[in-house]
């Protein structure tokens, strides 16, 4: 089996004082693209020159796309109900996270982004707010919104807005999981279509992972929630889970983790639960284990490595971090570059393929996805997404 070693990181050495100092006053600022160092510059940027641009947009609304920042601006929207590792902390407390997300958009995708935290958890109110603000932005990144509301909110916003909308907690995770899984299969010589995959967690990430794997041709997918295997015959399965039950679990399994994991090739953990080692031992030889919960994986990577050929986590201090930053900057960049009004399943699968391909011949058990800091990632993902949108 594989040997897991910690990735060198200085995170443990960062002091609380340094963290709070870095966040003081927030992490974002707005800077002018043109210097305002003369009366001439002021006359061009503001009055009276700006009036000419405003009149032109009033006469030809499509010119807003070329003469304002709105068409390239991503709003990071949250109600603070499902902040990673923190839970329902509310909009104000979630704002530092959203500021960080906006900074990632700029750094890795070259896209301007602003955080927008809303003091409501009502789906109708959130939709109404964003519909009214639509002239101010070009795309919506939904973030840290609790399930099952997140499914309804995203679906209804996609219909209500004429611009790209994506809930990153769902689809960013799913895209990177698919990319990592594709390379894990390539490394171990597996046929993707013949694999038995178990997903632990039927929340935002779990549902999206199941959907993208099915879209990519991996048909034997079984999903677990806190009550066991999500199946059509189980009582109390409704809504999104009912739809999921109708499209997964082709073997008709019932029961819990023991029944699901016996003989399985792949385990993907996106829940806050734990998995006993004795159940991992019942999986197929040279299994693939992605224990992605943060900060505590469903199983410690060292334990997983006793039973798996490839192990991944959501943590930066172990190899193969499944990090959403590999996906979302390039996905939104590609969608905006292509003028797409929606981010489709085909665009997400294309993004995963682009991420996986960057690993190339360097593929090994502790390197199945590129580093989040790899400068090739966002441009490659953007190009693949734009091509899928235009194709």
TrEMBL record:
| Co-factor binding comment | Divalent metal cations. Prefers magnesium or manganese.
The annotated active site, in chain numbering, is 46, 101
Malic enzyme NAD-binding domain location is 170-390
Extract the Pfam families matched here: malic, Malic_M
Instruction: Say if the entry is tagged with keyword Transmembrane helix.
Output: no
Under SMART domains, the record lists: malic, Malic_M
Entry annotated with the keyword Hydrolase:
no
> Which top-level group of life is the source organism from?
Bacteria
Start and end of every Malic enzyme N-terminal domain?
A: 25-158
Amino acids binding (S)-malate: 294, 323
Q: Which GO terms describe its molecular function?
A: malic enzyme activity; metal ion binding; NAD binding; oxidoreductase activity, acting on the CH-OH group of donors, NAD or NADP as acceptor
Keywords (A to Z) from UniProt: Metal-binding, Oxidoreductase
The Swiss-Prot or TrEMBL record lists the needed cofactor(s) as: Mg(2+); Mn(2+)
| Residues given in the record as a divalent metal cation binding sites | 143-144, 169
Q: Would you identify the family this protein belongs to, as annotated? A: Belongs to the malic enzymes family.
Q: What is this protein called?
A: NAD-dependent malic enzyme
Q: Which organism is it from?
A: Arthrobacter saudimassiliensis
Record lineage: Bacteria, Bacillati, Actinomycetota, Actinomycetes, Micrococcales
